[in-house]
Amino acid sequence: MLMVAAAVLVHELGHIFVARTIGVKVWEVEFFPFGGQAKIEDFTGLHPDREIYVALAGPAASLFTAVVFYFLTGKNLHYFVKVNLLLAAFNMLPALPLDGGRILRAFLSRLLGYRKATQAAAFSGVFLAFLLMVCGGYCMVYGDLRGVNYAVIGGFLFWGAQREKWLLNYAFMRFLVNKKRELAGKGFMKSRQLVSYPDTEIKKILSTLKPEEYTLVVVVDKEQHILGMCGEAELIECILNKGPSATLKDL
After folding, report:
1. CA–CA distance, 157 with 99 (Å, rounded to integer)
2. Are residues 240 and 116 in the same domain?
3. Cis peptide before 97 (omega within 30 of 0)
4. Last residue of a domain, which of 112, 147, 175?
5. What is the mean pLDDT of residues 55-77?
């Protein structure tokens, strides 16, 4: 058990080291049966590149530790090497809240937008949790006590994936705030244009917002005559003032 705790600690120290290296603060570390989670300031809504760097750091630290101890100690600490390898491999599965899920979200956010990317990665986490719990139940029915571990890990994974979904609105607002900071820092940003009718719900447009791109919406009537144009700032302000059912004609 001590070796498992040590392996989890090494894994999380990898996250912490890279986070601090790129200037992101760490609040605390939570430990789970399948690993842990460093509570990182502004990790929700973090720039995709930064999210990938921080997420990769944990598995990389586990893999590096496994290789070092394998060659330095031989079979003396074979179990510790095995735990580190399993920890690295499991956490790279593409399912939130695992590291692989964060990497998946970072890649998908450039294609689908941050909200849809988070929803997809969280769904993957729920699916993996379901498989683990089913596998655990099957094993326990046939007397294999390893099924208890599978079921417990699946339960924690399900809870973590659900939490990502519950925090989605908060995470999305952090994403928008960080994006605004990025624009202010650089002074410029690539833009993209969408064309939409006035009765389109603003939340549908916001769900397509992507990192490193500022969205401009051209509003047209049924004859496709241009009625006006608005940017992300106007969209966000309108939905905050008018509520989630606000449409473009409320601008």
Report:
1. 12
2. no
3. yes
4. 175
5. 89
Distance, in Å, from the CA atom of 104 to the CA atom of 116, rounded to the nearest integer, reads 12
In this prediction, residue 2 has a pLDDT band, given cuts at 50, 70 and 90, of confident
Selection from 204, 209, 248, 203 nearest residue 228 by Cα: 248
Instruction: Answer yes or no: is pLDDT of 32 > 80.
Output: no
Give me the active site residues, please. Answer: 12
At residue 192 the predicted structure's pLDDT band, cuts being 50, 70 and 90, is very high
Instruction: State the pLDDT at residue 35.
Output: 55
Whether the pTM exceeds 0.70: the reply is yes
| DSSP assigned state of 199 | T
What pLDDT score was predicted for residue 3? 85
List alpha helices for 74-167, DSSP H: 78-91, 99-112, 114-141, 146-166
3-state secondary structure 17-52: HHHHHCCCCEEEEEEECCEEEEEECCCCCCCHHHHH
Q: Residue type for 210, please?
A: K
Domain assignment of residue 229, given as a range: 189-250
Q: For residue 181, is it within any domain?
A: no
